[in-house]
Amino acid sequence: MAESTAANGPEADDGRPDLAAMMVPLGRALMAAELPVLRAHGLSMWAYAVLLALGEEPTRSQSALAQAIGADKTRIIGVLDGLQDRGLIERRPDPRDRRVHLLLLTPEGRRLRDAARNGIRRWEDRLLARLADDDREAFLRGLRTLSALPEEEIADPGPAAPPR
Amino acid sequence: MAESTAANGPEADDGRPDLAAMMVPLGRALMAAELPVLRAHGLSMWAYAVLLALGEEPTRSQSALAQAIGADKTRIIGVLDGLQDRGLIERRPDPRDRRVHLLLLTPEGRRLRDAARNGIRRWEDRLLARLADDDREAFLRGLRTLSALPEEEIADPGPAAPPR
DNA sequence: ACATATAGTAAGCGACTGCATATCATCCAT
DNA sequence: ATGGATGATATGCAGTCGCTTACTATATGT
C-alpha cells in the first residue's frame, strides 16, 4: 500500500511535511524568540516553566512539578533554589508529610510571572496575527488539545477513524 | 498594565499556556513517538530529515541542506556518509563548481523515504483524528504557515495587525 | 522496633548540539 | 600566476539534557 504514494512526486499526498518536522524547529524558533523576553526578567526557560506551572495549580511535591513541565526531577532543584533565593516561590514542608515540599508562588513571583507572560503574550499575538483569522482559534484549540494528550496517547493514538 | 491580569486567577487571560510551552514538549513527544517508526527503517531523525528535505527539492551544497533542516553543517556529514553508504543518496560534485556537492535521492532512497513517511503519516492521521473535524485543517494550515516563516519574522513578527 | 518505600538532594555519565578552528580543494578576480 | 574567498571535512570544546546511583530524612506497614 505504500507503493501507491511512493510512486508519486515529492509533493505527493497532501504535501504536508511531517508533523514533528514542523513542530520541532518551530518550537526551537519560538523558544529562541522568547528567550530575550525572559532574560529581560532574569528568567531562564525552566524558571519560566516553573512559574507558569505553579501559577496554574499550586503544586505538591517537586517530582510532580518536574513531571508536569517535562523536566527531570533532579534538574529543577537548582532552578527552584534560584527562584526561592529571589523570593519568587516558597518551598514549604507539607505538615502532613514532611518529606514533600509544597510549592507556591509568592506575590512577587506572581507579579514577575505575569509581567513575563504579558511580554510574551504580546509577541505571540503579533505572531499569531500572521494566521488567517479563521484559522487562528482552531489552530490554538488544536495545539492545546494535542499538547494536553498524555504521552502514551501520542505514542499510540488508538484507532484511525473517528467517524469521519 | 501587567497588574490588570496579575489580579486575575491562575487561568486568567484566555488561559492559554505559552505557545512555546505547548509546542516544545509536544514536539518532543511527537519525535519520541516517531522514533520507533524510523528505527524500523534504520533511520535516525536527522537521516529522515535529510531524506525529506532532499525529496522536496534536490539540494545544491551541504551547507544549504544543513540550514534547511536546521542542523549544523559539520554534523550532517556523518549522516550523509551513512545514507550514501547505504545507497540512499548520491553525492555528486557539481560540474560548475567542483567544491560543492549536489545531493539527490536515489530511487532506493526515495522508496525508503516514502515507506517511512507513510508509516509516520498513518500514525499522524490517527493522532490528528483526536482533533475536532473543523479544527484539523485549520490547525495544519496554521502550523504550516508558522513553520514556513523565516526565523527573523518569528523573532520579530512586525505590527500586531496583519493587513488582512 | 524494624523493614521497606518515597521525596528531596548531590554527583557523575553518556549523548547530543552549537560553535570554533584547521585543512584541503577549488573557484574567482586581478 | 597569485591571493583571497568558499565548500566540504575532521576535530575538539563547552553547555545542556536525560538517566542512574547514592545518601538523608521521613513515612508507613508489620
TrEMBL record, chains A, B:
A Pfam family this chain is assigned to: MarR_2
Residue intervals of the HTH marR-type domain: 16-148
SUPFAM superfamilies: Winged helix' DNA-binding domain
GO biological process: response to stress
Stored InterPro entries: HTH_MarR-typ (IPR000835), MarR/SlyA-like (IPR039422), WH-like_DNA-bd_sf (IPR036388), WH_DNA-bd_sf (IPR036390)
GO-annotated molecular function: DNA-binding transcription factor activity
Name recorded for this polypeptide: Putative transcriptional regulator, MarR family protein
